[in-house]
## 1
Amino acid sequence: MKSRLSLLLFLLPLLAACGPGDKSTATPAATPPATSAVATPGQAAQTEIPATAPIAGVDYFELPQGAPYAPLDGQVEVAEVFGYVCVHCANFEPSLVAWKKTLPAGVRFSPVPAAFGGPWDTYARAFYAAEALGIREQSHQALFDALHVQHSLAPTSTLEQIGAFYAQYGVDAQRFVATMQDAAVSAKVAAARQFAERSRVEGTPSLIIDGKYLVPVDERGYDHMLRTAGALVAQRQAVPK
C-alpha cells in the first residue's frame, strides 16, 4: 500500500505531460488537463534561482539510483527526455531553446528521445538516424512542426514517409530508413530507454540534472520548470569537482 501511495504522489505533478500511454496520437495524455498556468510557447524563460529554493518532492525529485546520460567530464549535464509525438514537448521547445542560450559555460545540454514503445520508438530512431547523418540540428524543430503544425507527418507515419521528410535535408530517403534500422541506432534507443527508466521519467517533457534530479513539468508551467532546473544547475556547479 505504501509503495502504491508513493507512486501516486510521484505521478500527481505530471499534469501537463505526455506519457507512455500515448502510443498512437500526438494529443495530450489522458491525464487532468493542463491549466492556464502553462507558459505560452515562445515566452521568455527565466534561469535565475527562485526566491525560495526548489523543494525536493515538490519542485523536483531526487534520483538515488540515477546516473547521467553521458559521462560528465567535469560538466553539469541537463538532459531533456522528450518525444516528437508529444504535443507538450512541441509547445515547450521555444521556451527551452531560449533557456539553453542562457546556460553558463560548463553546462552540457543533452536531448534524449523517450522510447515508450510504438511511435515513440519510431521517432526516437528518427532522432538518432538524423544525428548519425549530421542533420539533427536543422531538422529538429521542423519535425515538431510537421507533426503538430502542418500535420504532414503523424505518429502512425510509415518509415518511408519519415524518410521522405528527412530527404529535404540532403540525405537519400532510403538511406535514412536504413539508418533508422541500423544496429548502432537500436543501441542508442535502448540506452535512451534505460536512461529514462532509471531517471523515473513518467512523462515528457522532463529535465534531469546530472542524473541526480528529475524536474517534470506540471500545472505551474514551463517557466517554473526551467527556473527549478536553473537553480539545480547552479547548485551542481557550486559542488567542487
## 2
Amino acid sequence: MKRPLTDAAVKRLKPPAKGQVDVVDAGYRGLALRLSYAGSKSWCFFFHRQGKLHRMTLGQYPAMSLAEAREAWRDARKEVQAGRDPRQKVASGKTFALVAEEWLKRDQDKNRTAPEVRRIVGKYLLPNLGNMNVGEITKYDVLRITDALIDEGKPIMARRVHARLHTFFRWCVDRDLLPANPIAGMRRPASEKSRDRVLTDNELAAIWRGADKLGFPYGTCTQLLILTGARRSEITKLKWAEIERDRILLSPARTKTEIAHLIPLAPVARSIIDKLPVIVESEFVFTTNGRSPVSGWATAKPQLDRLSGVSNWHVHDLRRTVATGLQKLGIPLQVTEAVLGHTSGSRAGVVGIYQRHDFLDEKRQALEAWAKHVVAMA
C-alpha cells in the first residue's frame, strides 16, 4: 500500500486484522510505516544492498514523528548511496551497555535464567564491552573475553558467555541494530578435549624473562604463578593480609575446593613480593587503582606473548607445568597435590577423614627446589 502520509493520516491508520501491513510514504522511496495487528506502528526503511532487499527499523510511532522518520530516512539513504550499510551506522551510535540493558529488559527478564544472564553481563561483559559501540564489536573482542576465562580455568563460563553473546547479537540483528551477527560461525570455546599443554623448560624460561620485562602488575603476577603453582584468581586477588612472612594463607572462601590452603614462599618468591609497589590503603597486592584487583589479562597476555616469543598457551597451563615439573624433580605425588591445593579422593572418604597432615615442610622443600630450577633455567 502506497499513499502520501501526513501526521493526521498516520494517526488515523488502523492495525490489520492479522499479521502486518506496510504503508509506503509516497515520494520517499523505501520509507514505510509498518502496522501490526497488535496495534504497534514502526517506521521502516527498505533498501537494496548486494542484490538483496533489506529492512531496517528507524523508530516507533508516535515516539518518532513523521518528520523525524523522514529525516532518519534521508540519513539512511545517504549511507546506502555511499555504498554503506545504514544499519551499521545506527548500531555504532549505541553502546553495548545501552543495548544490553534493552535486550535484558525486552528479551531476557521474563526467563527463569534472567538472574544468571544479568550476572554474566555485569561481571564479564560490561567491564570489557560496556563502553564500546555495539556495531564495532568484533569476533576478536569476544575471543579476548572467552580466552581470558579459559586461561583462568573457567571453560564452562567461557561457553556460557559465548552463548549469551550469540543470543544477544541475534536479537540485535532481528531489531535491525546490526546487519549481521559478528560471531556467527565462531566455534564454541573450550568445547575440545581438556587441555594437556605443558610448557617446555625453554618456553617456561622465555615466559619468565618476558614477565620480567613486562613488570608490575601482570609480569610479577605471572612469576608468582610460576613459583607457587597457585590458581590465577588466588594470586591476582591476593591481599596483603594473606601474606604471613614466608607463606600465603588462603581462607576457604578464596579456594576452589573451599578448603584453607597454605602456600610456602621460596626465597625468590618472597623477594619478588618485597619489591612490589604498595598503593596506600589498598588491601590488594596486584592493583592499579587501589580499589580492586587487576583484571586486564586479555590485554596483558598478548604483550607477554610478544615479549617471551611463546604463543599458543594459556595462563592456566602454568599450573599444569608446575605440577609436571615437580614430578620431574622427584617430588612425591601427595606433596605435589598438596602444593596445588588438590584434595585426594572424597573428603567424606578415608583419605578425607584421616589424612590431616598438611605437608607444610614437604611443600616448602618442593617449592624451594622448583624455584631454584626455574631461576637456573632463566
## 3
Amino acid sequence: MNRVADIVVIGAGIAGVSAAYQLTVVHGVDDVIIVDPRPPLTLTSDKSTECYRNWWPNKPMVDLMNRSIDIFEALAGETEFGLNKKGYLFVTASHEKFEEMGGQVCQIADLGADARRLGADDLRAEYPFITNDAVGGVKVERAGWFRAQDLGRWMLDRARRAGGSLVRATVTAIEGRTVVLSDGTTITTPNIVIAAGPLSHQVAAMAGVELPLFSELHLKVAFKDHLGVIPREAPMTIWSDTQRLDWSPEERTELLALGRDELLGEMPVYCHFRPEGGTDSPYVLALWEYHGAVLEPTWPLPEDPLYPEVVIRGLTTMVPGLEAYVNRLPESSVDGGYYTKTAENRPLIGPSGVDGIHLLAGLSGFGVMVSAGAADLLARHVVGADLPDYARPFLLERYDDPGYLADLESVASGQL
C-alpha cells in the first residue's frame, strides 16, 4: 500500500508524540503520521523518573527548558497530569563544594534559572531527614515532576483528533522522501522527523545522515519505604559528593570474587531519589549512575543484581534513616533505559542537512522534561515559523564550526 502524508514522525516516544501534537494542534498540519512498531510511550519514555528542572549550566539549555516548562504549565490548565513544583535539592558535606554551589546559584540565575542556598541550619530545619554531616545545599525552585505517561496519552489523543495517526510498523528504509515500512507500506512525504530515541542514529543512517550520538545504560530502582523514612513532600534530593560504601571485610571479599571491584573504591556524585506516587504511596524512586557503560542499545537491558543494594547504601550517606534497609533490603524493582546523547549533552533539533529530514534526537536523560520545548522548536523549523534565539545551538550543523568543536570539552553536561 502506498500512502501520502504531510509529515512522517518516526518514533512514538514522548518526543515523537510531542512533535505530532505541536505540528497538528498548534500549527494546524493536516496529515501527520507517527510510525513505531511498539505501543506509544513504551521504549524509554515509560522508564523515566518524569522530573523537570531549569537548572542547567549553559544558557541554551536553560532557555529551552524554561520554554518546555512554560508549555507544561499551560497544558496543566487543560488536562491533569500531576505537575508539581517540589523542586530539586542538591546537598553536600563539603565546605568547598558548598562555596562552589553558591557561585553556581549566581551564575545560573544570570542564565534565567532560580535557586536558593541553604546553610546547615536551614537545611536541617526544612529537611530533617538529611544527615547532620551536610553543611548546606541548593534548592532549585523551578523543578519537580509529573505523570509523563498521562500527558503523552493526552497529547496523542489531541494529535489524532487534529489529523494525526499512528502506524504500528518498523521503518526498514528511507528512500529520498519515501519511508518504507516492514508491513510493505510506503509513505511519501515532504518532511520526515527522526524522533526514534536510542535508535535515532540507526534511522538517520537510512537517510544518509550520520549523527554524533552514543548511548549510556542508566538504571533506576523503585523501593518500598515501609518505614516512612522519606517524607512524601520531599523534593528530588541529590547527594553532590563522591563517597565510599561501607562494605564489611566479608562483603569486600565477595565483591572481589564477583569481579565487582568498581564498587569498592570512590563512587561518583549524584546518588539521588524522589518520592513516587501520591501521599499514601510508600514508594521511592532512586538512581545512581555508577556504571559508566557506553553500549549499543539492546533489549532486554543488561542486568545488575546488586543495583538496589548499592543505591540504597549510597543513599544512607545522605539519609541515615535508610540504614535500616541495608541488612534487609525492601521490596524493590529495577528498570531503566539508554541515555542517547551528544558529547556535550545537548540535543539535536532541526534540519539534518539532508533536504526534508529533520531531527529530534539526542535527548539523553532529559527527554521528558525537554519534550515540550524541543517539540515546539522542531515544529517551528518544519513549518517555517519564527525561531527563538536559542535555536542554533541545537542544530546538527554546530559540529561544522571549528570554534564550537574546540570548546566542546569545556561545556558542562548538566547530567545527574
## 4
Amino acid sequence: MAQPAEQNFSNHTRLDPLYHFVLLALLLLAVGLAVDMLVHQVGVASLWALVVSLALLLAVMKLRLYPLKAQDRIIRLEERLRMEAVLPESQKREIWALTEAQVIALRFASDSELPALVNAAVTKKLAPKEIKQSIKNWRPDYFRV
C-alpha cells in the first residue's frame, strides 16, 4: 500500500473525486437541464423535473454533512481526552473555553505544541485556519472522510 504524502496545512483537505466532481456535477447538470426544460416547455412535467432534481441535490448534500458531523463529534471527544492527558493541570480549564471548530483544528498540533496553541486559541480567539497555520509540527489526520 502506498504511503500517503506528508500532510501539512497546504494539503490537508481532501476531495473525493467521485462525489465532488462526478456526482455533484451530474446533479448540477440535472438541475440546469430541468431549469432549461421549464423555460422552454412550461408545464407540470418540467416543473416536477426541477423539483425532483433540486430535492436530489439537497439530499446528496445533506447526506454528505451527516457523517462529517459525526466525525466532528468523535474528533472533539478524542481531542478533549488528549488535552486532558497532555495539558498541565493549570491549563485544563481552557479545554472547555475552546469552540468546537478550534478543538477540531487543534487535532493537527503535536503534543509539544498543544499547550501554547490552546492558550493562544483561547486568549486570542484564533479562528481554525489561524490555528492550523500556527502549527509547526503537523500531526496528520488521514482518516477524515
